[in-house]
Amino acid sequence: MTSSANREGAGRRFQQVEELLRRRIAERAYPVGSALPPQRELAADLGVSRDTLQRVLKRLAEEGLLDVRQGSGSWVRAVPDVPPEGVVDDVAAQPALGAWIERAFREAGEVSLDVFTLTSETLYGHLKREAERIIVEKKTPPRSLSIRMLVPSEDQPLPYPRAKDPGDSRIHQRWRAMARKYARETDKLVKQLAKAGVDARLEVRRVLLTPAFKLYVLNKQHMLYGMYLPEETVITLDDEAETQVEAVDVLGGFSRLHYFHSRSADAREVAFFEEKSDWFQSAWDVLGSTSQGEK
């Protein structure tokens, strides 16, 4: 990749990360008063250099959203402004995963989540917030929590994320490390909730599929569905040189989510809900494996 293409790709990544962090703050994945993950960890997860992340954090601090403290991290000060009443754009109109997970915990004594995703990073962030509400803030917990998660097999090459060079496996290895990390962290949350008195269970099955879409079925009646949009980009590796790799990737945080209800008045919406629910169950039963692949 030429240096000019590198700069163009890195500039695009800067804009994406800025918008992604702004959206996470708006959706309370990072609530007001909470700290963002350490810069090195956050930069590695987002695939940008620490210099790029620092520039993003500075921009958000200038907007008044963050308080960036030297030596003590970045803290959320405020959420982005809500559009004036009657003004609705595409982003504002999208269903927010965090709000629906919060509702799922609030509306039912027995919470269930069926998830098909590339990694569980986004899900983990919102579940962490619910765990904090229950364990730290002493909110009334549900009686039970059942999570079934379908994720790609770790052994197969994926069309994304991947390096554009077919012989370069570093991007696949990076994805695999992230997938394992957030599966572990989600499992820890579930165990913490179990200690807090919730009958909490997590099942993970792997399929020989690359998600073309992300799917969340909450309490067997709410569904969020959104397509992954592949793009050519530049990913910065978490190594000493912060090596940039030309890659094909998706940013799941930019998937436009659409809402469907199992008992909608729209027959087409109900049919879509039933079709995707049946697909998940079939993939779970027929294609899913509990094998964790190579260590």
How is this fold's topology laid out?
Layout: H1 3-26, H2 39-46, H3 50-62, E1 66-69, E2 73-76, H4 90-93, H5 97-107, E3 110-116, H6 121-135, E4 144-152, E5 162-163, H7 170-195, E6 199-207, E7 213-218, E8 222-227, E9 231-236, E10 244-249, E11 258-261, H8 267-287
Parallel strand pairs: 3-4, 4-6
Antiparallel strand pairs: 1-2, 3-7, 5-10, 7-8, 8-11, 9-10
Helix pairs in contact: 1-3, 2-3, 5-6, 6-7
Brief description of this entry?
This protein is α+β, with helices and mostly antiparallel strands. The chain has helices at 3-26, 39-46, 50-62, 90-93, 97-107, 121-135, 170-195, 267-287, and strands at 66-69, 73-76, 110-116, 144-152, 162-163, 199-207, 213-218, 222-227, 231-236, 244-249, 258-261. The model is unreliable at 83-93 (pLDDT under 50).
Annotation field: number of helices: 8
CATH class of the largest domain: Alpha Beta
Overall outline:
globular
Our count of domains comes out at 2
What's the helix-strand series? HHHEEHHEHEEHEEEEEEH
Distance between the termini: 32 Å
The share of residues in extended strands comes to 15-25%
Mean pLDDT, rounded to whole units? Answer: 88
Instruction: Indicate the structural class.
Output: alpha+beta
What share of the residues lie within helices?
Answer: 40-55%
Stretches where pLDDT is under 50 for at least 5 consecutive residues are 83-93
Radius of gyration (CA) equals: 19 Å
Name the strands of the widest sheet in spatial order: 6-4-3-7-8-11
Number of strands: 11
What would you say the CATH architecture of the largest domain is?
2-Layer Sandwich
Q: Would you give the CATH topology of the largest domain?
A: Endonuclease, Chain A
